[in-house]
Write a structure and sequence with these properties.
Layout lengths: L15 H4 L1 H19 L12 H6 L8 H9 L3 H7 L1 H22 L11 H18 L10
Helix pairs in contact: 2-4, 4-5, 4-6, 5-6
Length: about 150
């Protein structure tokens, strides 16, 4: 089954700078988040709240290690980020890819049209996150634990 790309509706007319305004406005927000995580490292106690699921049950949730992964990415260490939380790294890569598609559509003068949502996609993502959570809490999946 292949996805068909359909051109989106025409964007407002204007220069490239105007069309790229919204996608580029996202960059300072993401940069501010990464700079904050980089400056206030998650390894220092008191800067970030702890995971309530981990505190109550001793089990890692799918987000456990996410701040450490972002911290490692902000320091340019993708291997450490994968070790802290592979799901955050993969999800972040998907977001970057989506942002690039958004910018390319804006440059072409088209509004990006997201693919039609299907229930099977949502269930697949939920199943992957659940599998990631279960495996990282089992002895043989300790490499996925933060």
């Amino acid at each position: 089954m292949t996805a068909q790309l359909r051109p989106g509706p025409p964007a407002t007319r204007g220069s490239r700078a105007v069309r790229l305004g919204v996608p580029l406005a996202v960059l300072p927000l993401v940069a501010a988040l990464l700079l904050w995580v980089r400056a206030a490292g998650p390894h220092q106690p008191g800067h970030h709240p702890g995971c309530p699921l981990l505190r109550l049950t001793g089990l890692f949730c799918p987000g456990c290690g996410g701040l450490r992964a972002l911290h490692a990415l902000a320091h340019g260490d993708p291997l450490a980020a994968l070790g802290a939380n592979a799901a955050v790294v993969v999800g972040g890569a998907a977001l970057v890819l989506g942002w690039l598609v958004w910018c390319a559509a804006a440059l072409r003068g088209r509004a990006p049209e997201p693919p039609a949502p299907r229930a099977v996609h949502g269930w697949a993502v939920c199943a992957l996150v659940l599998a990631f959570t279960v495996v990282r809490n089992l002895p043989f999946g300790s490499a996925l634990a933060p």
